[in-house]
Amino acid sequence: MIQVSVMYPNQDDARFDMAYYTEIHIPLIRKLTGDACRRVSVQRGLGGPQPHSKPTYVALGHLYFDSVPAFEQAFGPHAQQIMADLSNFTNLNPTIQINEVVVE
């Protein structure tokens, strides 16, 4: 199993519409990738490592697929459409990382 992490960095001018992200963007990804996307997880950043410090990321989205090829086959044909939707909920450029799930 792999996890595709999409992390939206916190910055002073950050705009992030969590309602749009969870109610429109994530369902769009689920629809376009179909059964290949096993599950999703979304987190909102609350704080950093020090008390009362800002979170490193305003939001994180995690998509789970059986393998990297499964992700590439499901996401690749729709990448342009999915990425074009970002401007509807944020002004941030996300950091994307593919991870192997070792323990759950």
From TrEMBL:
Ranges for domain EthD come to 18-91
Gene3D superfamilies the UniProt entry points to: 3.30.70.100
**InterPro entries according to UniProt:** Dimeric_a/b-barrel, EthD_dom
Q: Specify one Pfam family.
A: EthD
Please provide, alphabetically and separated by semicolons, the GO molecular function terms listed in this UniProt record.
Answer: oxidoreductase activity
Q: Which NCBIfam families match?
A: EthD family reductase (TIGR02118)
| Protein name in the entry | EthD family reductase
Q: Which organism is it from?
A: Thiomonas arsenitoxydans (strain DSM 22701 / CIP 110005 / 3As)
Q: What is the lineage of its organism?
A: Bacteria, Pseudomonadati, Pseudomonadota, Betaproteobacteria, Burkholderiales
